[in-house]
Amino acid sequence: MNPAAHSNFESLSNELLLEVFEYLDAYDLYQTFHALNQRINALLRRANLHVLLESSKNDTTVLNGILSFFTPSQVRVLSLNIDNTTLAKQFVSFTDQNLYSLCVYKQHGNALSEIIPCLSKSSRIKYLRIDEAFAYGVSSTRSLFDLIFIEYSDYFISLAVAVISFHYRTQASRVQTVFPHLRHLSLAKISLTSTLTDFLRSSTPNLRSLAISPTVQDYLSPAFALAQIRQLHLRYTYNFEYVASLIKMFPSLRRLKIDYVNYPQNFSNINQICKSLTEEHLPYLKQLTIDFEPCVELEIMKSFTIGEFWSAKKLSVIRTMNIMESRCPMVKSIYFGSRLHSLMTK
User: What range(s) does the F-box domain occupy (predicted)?
Assistant: First the structure.
């Protein structure tokens, strides 16, 4: 750093320097500013920290320096994008009740069962994201759902947002704990059974946004209703009739997004199904987005979107071109209201 730049940086107020520090993770912060001078060191010990562990940040001296120089109360965000379980446990153990957000990637279910208990018993985590990893030749002996919502539920009682991706399709167990602050929940690869529905209805009274990936094997009685949900995201690969029967469980929906994967070529029945759903079962629906994977031919889509119903909804169509057949326009999304984007990775 040249003298002029050094002088300009030093002239910044303490408040502004602390704001600058917010844009750096703890590794870069320590590596760049530690031991610069007494004033900077004092400010570093006041900063709110985002600890990001990934494969490129592997200097043992820096990692040990973070643990020895900073204090647990400074760690507000912890992101673990490493497959080193020992290191992950070490940094999770370093946190206390001030930890606001926890994200874990590249960890198998058995490793997660070692990492989660390392959290402080006074944890008040608001945001949780876990993407369970696959380990070749190793089967998970612990259910990630049970770890979070049953065995260590006290650690997550303050959750507001949870995004959890199971590697193996999971069956939910019966949950006794109530999560009163949970507003958004995204669950990938979990069977939509009556047990899971009981959890959503009884343990998440203030849940407003839900993202799930059901399968056609999931069967639920029409008696189930999740009236607290206002926003729903379904990633689906089967027939639209089943989607319709599932959506009836959410009578208070305002916003609905469907990722329709491997769609059938016949759209003749979808028009009537959508019309029936929105007019009879979803009276409050203001926004509907259907994304197609792969894209559908525009001519096929026209047969689906004709009629007074769609005209009244002011349906919008997002087109693309088939790169293999430039004269064949394709549709990748239709929507009314504002277009909704993914809730799976919120």
Answer: 6-53
Question: Cβ distance 43 to 21 under 8 Å?
Answer: yes
d(CA 29, CA 300): 55
Six token digits for residue 4:
């002029």
Residue linked to tokens 């002996």: 141
Q: How far apart are CA 250 and CA 227, in angstroms?
A: 6
Q: CB-based contacts of 103: which residues, under 8 Å, 6+ apart?
A: 77, 78, 79, 80, 81, 127, 128, 129, 130
Record the tokens describing residue 228, joined without a space.
Answer: 């607290």
Tell me how far apart the alpha carbons of residues 163 and 187 are, in angstroms, rounded to a whole number: 6
Other CB atoms within a 10 A radius of the CB of residue 282 amount to 21
Q: Which residue has the tokens 């043992």?
A: 60
User: What pLDDT is attached to residue 136?
Assistant: 67
Residue given tokens 């004709």 in the structure block: 306
Query: Distance (Å, rounded) from C-alpha 253 to C-alpha 281?
Result: 9
Say if residues 179 and 156 touch (Cβ distance below 8 Å). Answer: yes
Residues 6+ apart with CB under 8 A from 176: 150, 203
Sequence-distant (6+) residues with CB within 8 A of 206 are: 180, 181, 182, 183, 228
pLDDT range class, residue 169, cuts 50, 70, 90: confident
CA separation for the pair 62, 151 (Å, rounded): 34
**Residues 6 or more apart from 2 whose CB is under 8 A from it?**
none
**Structure token digits, residue 273:** 């199904």
Structure-derived torsion over alpha carbons of residues 336, 339, 343, 344, reported in degrees to the nearest 10: 100
CA 52/CA 128 separation, integer angstroms: 15
- Tell me the C-alpha distance between 279 and 302, whole Å: 21
124, 306 Cβ separation under 8 angstroms? no
Instruction: Place 323 in a pLDDT band, splitting at 50, 70 and 90.
Output: low
